[in-house]
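Notes to self after the call with IL:
- keep both proteins in one doc
- input above output, always
- annotate only the second one for now

Protein 1:
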Amino acid sequence: MRGMWARVAVMLAALTASLAVPVAASAAPAVSWAPCIEEPLAGYQCSTYEVPLDHDLPRGATTTIALARRPAGDPARRIGTVFVNPGGPGGAGRGLVTSAAALLGPEVLARFDVVGFDPRGIGASDPIQCFATDAEAEALLDRMTGVPVTPEQIGETLRANYEYTEGCKRTAGPLLTHMSTLNVAKDLDLLRQAVGDAKLTFVGKSYGTLIGATYANLFPGSVRAIILDGSVDPAQRTGARLANKFARAGGFEIALRGFLTECDRAGLNCAFAGNARAKFERLRDRLRQGPVTSPSLGTVTLDDLVGFTGRMLYDVAAFAEAAQTLQFVHDEIFGDPMVLQVPGPKPLPQAPPVRGWLPDAYSYTSNDAFFAVNCADAPLPREPARYPGFAAAFEAVYPTFGRAEAFSEVGCANWPPVDERYAGPWNRRTAQPILVVNPTFDPATRYEFAVQMTRRLGNARLLTLDGFGHTSDHSVCVDAWYARYLLHGEVPPVGSRCAQDRPPFPAV
């Protein structure tokens, strides 16, 4: 027996050694870190790194990647670097170092540097810019309707999207056609070498899961540990984007139905309870007929309702307050019809432009990058006139979110052709399994996408979070598996599920 335990000890030591990240001999120059000078990143380390604009021309023009680092808390026991990405596309990632404690937990932070990076063209990384000023971008954005219903709304939305893309062609420069996820994954491999890691440790959320899946299939031998949280279906997203948009609309509808069901189940703890689904549908169908004004709300549109509802489904902690807002709006709109003509304040919060971390004169880099990446990654029909038909078909199945999803990337219809894209294969086997995590009621990356991601990858394990919100949150169970996987390479047993510790509607 003593000999058996000795052999086990040797095996465990070998496994631990395989999960360490030795310093890599690399042709890539090392990153040079210095204290960050931007106030939101005060106390962290920052750097910039040059990568080829076109990876097929490694000695040609370059573009700059901006990074931020939180050093490991216990340098003597440091394993390596965890690269993190928040998604988007268009999301600036450097700021994730400031919330690393919530993302990774103390055990991981002690053993790893955490590096957030703004992917090419985003945030502080030579940001892409389709217009000279905010005013030029806003002039077109203001002409677009998120959920266009009338012929006038549809026509103006199509024209404004077309003009937006033409503005990108005129102004954005050569970076515009080098924004694909293929290039981001290649950038990431250079960054991995530049921090001295022989293999990549990466946590990608939402769109970041496509970065991780692409990397794993380009560089399967360079994977140490990859967590994909809130997964896309990589094959559908890159090979059948229109079908993927339809499926995304379904994900939002599933999450909405779950919200409304939990609301009724919560009773007095949910302000919108009492046949919540019927009330929501009545509200939506009324606004589909046209805007409504009231003393307290001002003008409320279908765009307001769909946008507000979609955003609140991202965060289970927002559910209770969102239910109060929906009940207030419902009462106002279906109250005394004699008072529905007097303007007033609007309670439905609007989403501001994403400004990243720099106080820049231009605020819409994130919006520009969203199109630049998605239009590069996924072919969509090139005829704008076909999109109203797609919207009608989507809406017939998914009445709340179908129309919005069908129109959300119509700007790709006249996007310049891009040859640099990766669309599979997705099944190259990595030495270490990839950990896929997904909530069952994730609106933007529906649970079925995670199932497909796990099936398509050559070596992956799915951890299910029974809960709400976009990507995993509010779960000690998920946090524990993050740590066990990143530190020791341990994956949960097949079929493992975690509970969400925060109920959708806590008792008052």
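Protein 2 (the one to annotate):
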Amino acid sequence: MAAALGATAMSGSASAIINGRDSTERYPFMATIPLSAAQLADGACGATLIDRQWVLTAAHCVTGDEDSKLTLKGTVRIGSADRDSGGTVRTIDRVVVHPGFEFGDGSARPNQNDLALVHLDRPAPQQPIRIADRSGIPGTPTRLLGFGTVVDTPSFPDMVFPDRLQELPTRIGTPADCAPGYAGATRLCTLSRIPEAMACMGDSGGPQIQRGRGGRWELIGTTSGPGAPGVPCAGGPGLYTDVPAYASWITGTITGTSTGR
């Protein structure tokens, strides 16, 4: 699924959308964070503009480890349907990783508290997306967005990253649709609504959205990794950090009053 370029991603998490489609509408809140890592010189993670000067992404996208040698390239691109052009580019001012973040072990334990907030050097003109009051019940239609690989392969040289933003119709599953211990109170199990499709390498940190008030998109999830160990991206399911579950930490971080989750 859209896992990261950190340890989890290197062990098979998804980061790009397999069998998605070119974006069908404008998503001004969609953002990308360029980065480099061992074996992947020109990678990126997804992110979501939730405040004029803050984007939300996966902690594993900005943390890295000794194996990944992950390095942020210092900028965020916001509001473009093109991978390397358009939109608004802002410099990263600072990064706040959730204090409870821990990498998963690639088998029985997924990433924990996989969220990070990135502060921009100055406000972006695009309209931020609203965080939903709560994620929908199992079966709720959702949508994934990302610039991850469109070729489902574990070989970095064989990955193909799209020039245009990809989207995929999905739905919220039950915890039982993911491997035991993967989904729960703070992690959403996500299922594709079309066969052999899911986020993959390069999609990590990107948004999962659902329709809210007045039919407007609202943010419910951030791409974290696969929903089961040892499956290819297209084999699904995907695992998403439940953003509404962390609303207090997000608001507290932005306002400078955070005391934890």
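Annotation: The chain has one domain: 7-255. The first strand starts at residue 21 and ends at 22.
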